[in-house]
Write a structure and sequence with these properties.
By secondary structure, this protein is mostly helical. Helix content is about 60%, strand content about 5%. The chain contains 23 helices and 7 strands. The strands form 2 sheets. Strands 3, 4, 5, 6 and 7 form a 5-stranded mixed sheet that branches. Strands 1-2 form a two-stranded antiparallel ribbon. Helix 4 (about 75-90) packs antiparallel against helix 14 (about 320-335), helix 6 (about 125-145) crosses helix 13 (about 285-310) and helix 18 runs antiparallel to helix 19.
Amino acid sequence: MQPRIARRNSSDRSRRCPWYKDSLGTACGSKEPGISALNDKLRVIVKDVPPSVVMFLIALPLSMGIARASGAPVMLGLITAVVGGVLVGFLGGAPLQIAGPSAGLSVLMLEWVLAYRNEEDPYGLMSLAVIVMIAGAIQAAAGLMKFGIYFRAVSPAVIRGMVAGIGVIIVAKQFHVMIDDHVEGSVLYNIVQIPAGVLKALTTGGDRTHYIAALIGVATLLTIVLWDRFRPARLHLPGALAGVLVASIAAAVLRLPIDYVVVKDSLFEYITLPSARSLSKLTETRIWVSGVALAFVASAETLLCSTAVSHMHQRGRTNYDRELAAQGIGNLVCGALGSLPISGVISRSTANVEAGAHSKWSGIMHATWIFLFVVLAPELLEFVPESALAAILIYVGNRLMQVSTPRKLFDYGWPVVGLYVATVIGIVSIDLLTGIVIGLVLSTLRLVYSLAHLDIERIDEDERIELHLHGAATFLALPKLAAALEEVPRGTELHMHFDELDFVDHACLDLIAAFQLRHNETGGRVVMEWRSLIGRYTRGGIRAATRRNSLLPSPPPPPPKK
């Protein structure tokens, strides 16, 4: 008798070895598949090293500039870049998206720094940390509950208006920083003070050094523009870093008397862990309002960025819920460290794709390089002029205004343009949150109007009248529909057409049925397709209309001819 050979399929092996389908692909009893998968992963990581270096060179100056635009120390922007790159890179659902400090969120952070700072806490970090943690908790919960897709349900006109408004604020605020001038107040006040700032930049003599800072800022801007335009294709040095290098070297060689970045000796001196005093702010209503607002803005920015980046590559689908949850966890950590919030950043994500990134390891490694640089050589940051960072942000703000593409909105009609303009005006003249709320309210009102609006077209012919209904016949349109029916003379033949009617509710059905009975009694005749009309009431088509034909009585027969 031959011995029995037990046969097991792959599912049996996977049950015996839970790690049968692990990330290394190692199979039970065989090391070859695991080694092959490990080699493939190492090849991908090696391929992502050059893109990660490019992203490190881009993220370093931008993170510093965004921190200064937020009214916070530059090190906080770098901490946020490290947390966003490593933590969100590992956990996120958008593999080529770069998470870190955002220029869009810097507007919110600056408002809150000015609102919550005091003598003991000059940057308001105690309150900001709690706000960021609240936002992170909301984002993580929304992602785990599969609510990620709903954060994208915002009118594109409002989103573009938000982007353009943020760009205007950044340019208005950073212009004064670029000339080493300190102007506080509203955005409108900063805009009004720009001519005075230009005059300061053109004035020389005495202790006034605004013109020197202005020259450094202009040199940085010109370097960025010219470098991006004429940069050799094989040289991946980003324009922002080229501008910072030119400005820093010129300022150091000439020993210019302008403002420079100030850093402490150690990165860890900037980390502020939660305390009983800071957590007591959870009882303040305004802190919760700020946290909810931050969660909404950061989530909308992140998921819109994820959508844009997913259209640029074919390296896996985007899991919006997982990305939102990862962003929430990242913000929880940033809040616990007393740092700035993170979100998906379209400029760095686009550069990551264009640099040839293959996987999430590009983002993870770029954050690692930032961490090593800040730990090993933080003193080099003190050579960077403040005006150079402000110039980078002015360039970014101008790009944001261009990205919003207001001209393309004219293709969709004046109502959409009105939403865009109202959002921009609200953001610039009041604040970011109020402007977004104005845009959302107006877009909702426009939606309600389009859903409840009814157009009635009347055509008079020799022996009959035709009424064509367009839009939605709801109870809100009862006065208009009733007026149109009352204008039909007695004894005439009326044809009602519902081909272009999207919806009709029970109130309008009752009105039409009552009018038909009354008009027939006076010697007239109403011709209409009841099945089509009732099908629109049920939104189920002809079959549903047939099943529910008992909703209204059958139309009475026409009067006999005399």
